């Protein structure tokens, strides 16, 4: 193996001096502005601080073509990932080539200016196929490319004014030059970087420690806190977990720094990209594991990339990149010896223990044991705090049915029963309460009913997010709107749809408020069930009949359902 030593000289940044920045900021206020998307802010930060060295701005068309086709900039330098400024057609048309524009963050702060030298409409299908391997929306970056990114790309050099502002974990964020200076100060001439977007468990701690020992290098835990794969554990929780694991390494040889990268989940190309970024951050070695930066399954249910494609591609380019790969040792826990060992060194008859990601989530959800051999108790503690068992999470019970079907009465009874049990706070969003407090200006057109239900859904999702119980009881006649509310709530907790299935005949016979009579006489228009539609729910979690069943029993059926779903525990 070649001995890599680190050249820790500063690398070029795109920032102007402090004084020039103050001046430029004032001048830039007169420029046409582009409001950066969250991904573009991540990209811009790494462009400006040298993390994306040798890029000097968002890619020009010639650079883009080279990167897409053969992973090289127009001047031949290796660069595997398009870093492009996507904008809308309208914005693109308003710009003249050669013009300077201001790049602003989401609060309007000017972070940089860019001289627009290039403007083109990319062939997104080609980009998807060449860069990500397939034009398949199941790939998060392809989905982003087609459904989020603007139609037109602008390219040109960037002049950096200030770093994007971060309020969280400020002390843990370092620019490439800050890390280089730190390594220089400590005399760390060999540093192996570990890229991660997941909480670290014991297996990761073992493999990173082993990798550092083998390379006789210091270790940089370098987690991504920009954008990762949708559905990942949020970075706030992860960083607290990393901080707990950091204590398990020898302090004098290991450090951690947070990287505000927007990942693309592009497997092999992404591994090379990650290597170049770590090289810029002063590292000499980089750990590449099985299925590095894997995007999951494609729409046919198959893997986008082979499990070792990333290692192969990295190996092909590592000399040119001047950073050496340490291939991931897949570590497993061997029960007989109560320790982690590389899977390929374990004899066939040994008992190997494992807990998959799915099994871990199940145990968190059900509040079951997570053994010490799998993860450090501090890490498990943080995860349990973030993902309490279902019986401690918020949820929403959403009643739907005709006017007078008994929704409010059952919802009230349910609320009282839940309050008797205690624990989570309960909020009742009854149709009448909502129409008085949130939707007093709305009528009963389809548009207004949808608005009304969306508002209820928003409030219920906030209550659910914050660990409370929301009970909603509107008519909610439209299935599509109910589905939208379900999706909003299910980001945070369970959504329990209860169809109060009282027939329209029975509701009209009861006519508790005298409204059906008025509706029949045409004095109330658009009355649900009489002169307006109601989509009967196809698959509610529960359907209750009210005609021969009393209210207490109906509410009790809901309680039993909640118990069955694990939402209330003994
Ligand atoms: S919706 O469709 O979900 O927005 O309706 P909702 O907010 O639940 O309001 C229903 C209550 O408003 C009274 N009301 C009407 N209902 C249906 N159609 C028309 N045109 C209408 N006009 C007034 C009625 O009392 C409903 O009360 P509930 O509690 O459902 O009996």
TrEMBL record:
Enumerate the residues binding ATP: 401-408
Q: Name one GO molecular function term.
A: ATP binding
- Give the record's GO CC terms: cytoplasm
Write down the EC number: 2.7.1.25
A Gene Ontology biological process in which this protein takes part is: hydrogen sulfide biosynthetic process
Q: Identify the pathway.
A: Sulfur metabolism; hydrogen sulfide biosynthesis; sulfite from sulfate: step 2/3
All copies of the Sulphate adenylyltransferase catalytic domain together span 173-385
Keyword annotations for this protein, in alphabetical order, are:
ATP-binding, Kinase, Nucleotide-binding, Nucleotidyltransferase, Phosphoprotein, Transferase
Q: Which reaction does it catalyse?
A: adenosine 5'-phosphosulfate + ATP = 3'-phosphoadenylyl sulfate + ADP + H(+); sulfate + ATP + H(+) = adenosine 5'-phosphosulfate + diphosphate
Residue ranges annotated for the ATP-sulfurylase PUA-like domain, each copy included: 12-162
Q: Does the keyword Transferase apply?
A: yes
User: Which residue spans adopt a coiled-coil conformation according to this UniProt entry?
Assistant: none
Q: Where is the APS kinase domain?
A: 393-544
- Family note: Belongs to the APS kinase family.
**Purpose:** Catalyzes the synthesis of activated sulfate.
Protein name as catalogued: Adenylyl-sulfate kinase
Q: Which organism is it from?
A: Marimonas arenosa
What are the leading ranks of the lineage?
Answer: Bacteria, Pseudomonadati, Pseudomonadota, Alphaproteobacteria, Rhodobacterales
Parent sequence residues shown? 125 to 694 of 694
